[in-house]
Fold these 2 entries.
Entry 1:
Amino acid sequence: MSTPFGDPDASDLVCARCDRPLEMLKVEASYLGQTFPVELPACPSCGFVYVSEEIAAGRMLKVEQALEDK
Amino acid sequence: MDGDKVKAWEALCIEEQPPACAAACPLRVDARAMAEKMAAGDFVAAMAVYARTVPFPAILAHICEHPCEAVCRRAEAGGAVRIGALERALVEEAYPSIRRAAQRARKPKTVAVVGAGLAGLTAAFDLVMKGHAVTVFEADAQPLDRLNRDYRPAALPPSAIAADVGALMKLGVDIRCRQRIGGDAPLSLDALIAGHDAVLMASGPGPAAAFAGTLRLNATGRIEVDRETLTTSHPKVFASGLHDGKAAWSAIGSMAGGRRAAGSIDRFLQGASLTASRGGETTGTCLYVNVESHAAMPPVEAADPAAGYGHAEAMAEAARCFPCHCLECVKACAYLAHYKTYPKRAVREIYNNDSIIMGNRKSNRMIDSCALCGLCETLCPNDLAMGEVCLEARRSMVERGHMPASHHDFALRDMAFSRSDEVAFARHQPGHDRSAALFFPGCQLAASAPGQVAAVYRHLTERIGGGVGFMLDCCGAPAHWSGRTALHGEAVDRIRAVWEEFGRPRLVTACSTCLKLFGEFLPDVPTGSLWTELERIGLPDGANRLPLKGPLAIHDPCTARHAAEVQAAVRSIAAALGAEVRELGGAEKTTCCGYGGLVSFAHPEVGNAFVDRRITESDDDYLAYCAMCRDNFARRGKRALHLMDLIFPDADDPAARPDPGFSGRRDNRLRLRRRLLRELWGESMSDPVPPVSLIIADAVRADIERKLLLIDDIAEVIAEAERTGRKLKDRTTGRLTASGRIGTVTTWVEYEAGMDGFVVHRVYGHRMQVEAKP
């Protein structure tokens, strides 16, 4: 499955609680009852998923709007 | 949406009506489009427009009687556009650019045309363009002989006739001269009928005794013709309209007659109805044109009248064409202008969007971008209200579950907050157990100027006897505007319940929207405006006069467009307080501030366009009497006062007061409730302690507003992250990033701990949910 949101630069981020750098992980995105797998930086230990502003206001917003107009 | 209602709406918009020139032209030449292209200097494109309708441009440009000029609306402003002269200049310059190609039929039908006059040759042209094989039989030595006889070469050069006839023959029309039909075979009418799929008699209006054996003749010995379909008594034979000998000859009339006959023949050859959806010979038009908005301008005189217009002269004369359009609403509306549309097209688009079962509803945002302000209806010659159309579409979207959540969520959440126990309350006046009046300030004045709400309430209680109750609540406008009928009904029902419980007092509201909606949805509840009330009971004694630096331009809210009493009261109060008030085009034509219809939430760009148009109308400071209008003007950089600032001045320069923003609005409502309950009703109220203290730079705060996020939510996210440790840390900058799901939005905050609180650097949100798979 492709990753609709691309690869943000999260190389400097660490999970404060687990003290581990984020890694690109397969996570689940869902909106309006639709679920699809994407790859996003997340803490490999606790699973905290990071969404950058670039992605939130970019490709994620586009998908949200497309689903809203379905 | 109801299809019949949609059709009725569509029918009200007259923008697609033809301009007067085209309506008066027997061939419907689109002189408006032609003039527009010529005015732009594009004579080739103009020629294409002219030649699309006119079969013989070189001939017609010289001899047309141009009935268009007699009806040209420019006549009312300097003189009719000289369309005939424009056509001649056009043919002079661009005739060689005409490109024509006939359709190709696999098995062409054959048509015989008797008579090579303008009617017969126009029919031949139309039929050959449709792919039929056309043979023209002419008794004279050459086609269009009458033109050669009737016009001097100076008026109609033989070269023009030759060019048009040559072009016709190039399309494949076979013109046979010296072939008089009416004798024995092979030139008998019966032989023509036998040898062709259809025959057109276009031999002129004279008696036709030679055809008596085949066609029924009328009392004057002419071929009997049905005026509408141009059929004769023989099913395969048609005759051009002049055969009844009643109409006077005209070049363009002959062409139109030939075209109508060709239309019948083509329908006949295809086995189609000869009458279905066929227009008449002439049409009227009800296109509205605001002629007064154009300055008078005389026609351009050609330097050499004999030669006609040169290129530059023709361009200048063509530019005198307005062109005729209605577009009265489009010119005034930021919404229609943004979508580059007009109501007839927009209504169709909205209905199509509503009818989609599966697929993308591309017009959702367009439907949600109308301010529902009613200006279009006021300007429209037929009172078409786009707001009604959009509101009906929104209700349909909500009903079917197709309303995009993101468009109105924030506004509805704000409304829910205004109606929550944290904000909403109703009390009788302290020391009273009944209310003669109930003051309903409205949620936005409370959000913008809570101190003035308290001050005016005190004044009302001093001047009105019998007790003045107080009700802080929301009238439900956001629910109404967003098409949430049920939610709006809940808001209305609660207001009615309080009104009943308080002994049915009269309502006094400071908000024009509340006033309008109560009138519509609570018609039996007596409701008045605070401004008419103040005019009646008088202003506070010895009120401080606000020193005014200059005149104020008055802006009426769109919801007070037709509230003449309110408009008058506001002007009278302003005058009494020493303000010199100037009009901005009048109350009836006021525009929306961008809040109406929730446009600024569904489409901020259009919302801002509404405000920006309005604030550039005058350099004077603006005087508003809707808190939302004032704050929107302030947000976009316009100095603006609220009428309350004149009555209860509580700052040196209230016109410079910034927009409180959405977070500030919530805070003001919370504070107003606590302050009033504590000070007037003696209830113990403790101020809530914020979970964390935040330090936010102005630029970041403006960004938060723009993104429709709330400071309270940001504080919650940070507090939660600090409590649980669920946050990210940037190893380079040391900044922290945390997120939290609040309602339907995930809010992300980038921040760092400072000496006096948490410094917020960046905030953003998204609606999609993401989680790591277990």
Entry 2:
Amino acid sequence: MPRDEHLEGIYYIQGRDFVDAGVVSSEIKKRLKDKGITEDVIRKVAVITFEAEVNIISYADQGTIQLFIEPDAITVEATDIGPGIDDIELALQEGYSTADDSIREMGFGAGMGLANIKKFSDVFELTSEPGNGTCLKSVVRLDSE
Amino acid sequence: MTLETLAEKLGLKCKCCWEKLKTTEIRGGYAGDLLSDVMANSHAGAVWVTRQVHQNIVAVALLKEHAGIIIVQGANPEKDTLEKATREGIPIMVSDLPEFELVGRIYQLLENG
């Protein structure tokens, strides 16, 4: 469990704000580069944060991403307020998506987001309360290959 | 091979960041229109071939450190896309060819040096 002393940044994301999709992920990537984190770890965290960011934009009212930098791992916690996920097992299946047409037209909504986050994480936790929101936690160890 | 050389050989029309074509080296390529797929499977230095034209392609190319983006079938990148690409320094080029043919030609050029 990362402690507040490791909290590097809290980033706010507005739902349906596709114009700014990727801004938070880019900032997090720059922050990690400045801290001298290895390229391999940055690559994984970039995918994880982008998918988490796009999920909040696509499906939630609003949310935040918190970045923790610990001595041996990077932790990303994405929390949102919104409809939540009714069936987490289903949502984790590749190809399953609840995206509407406007989302798919932009190339999002392929149903790979959560699966990608899980694939690139060393530790992955997803909890949701339908009607309230979702919380996702991803840990990438610094010695991760 | 630089983006400039690729653009000349394939008749690509550059829509922004012209000054980067001469100095940007290509390290492979990736073709895809699903952004999650491109995020997970493409690599830094690749030239990304896609039919997508909206501004989110710039965010993806930036995060993945692509050499540039080539849009196929003569599709026009949106105004917001070009503005964002210019700000972020991501060259965007357009080809009139369909994706299959363009990717085949790029692959051949990169394989044969």
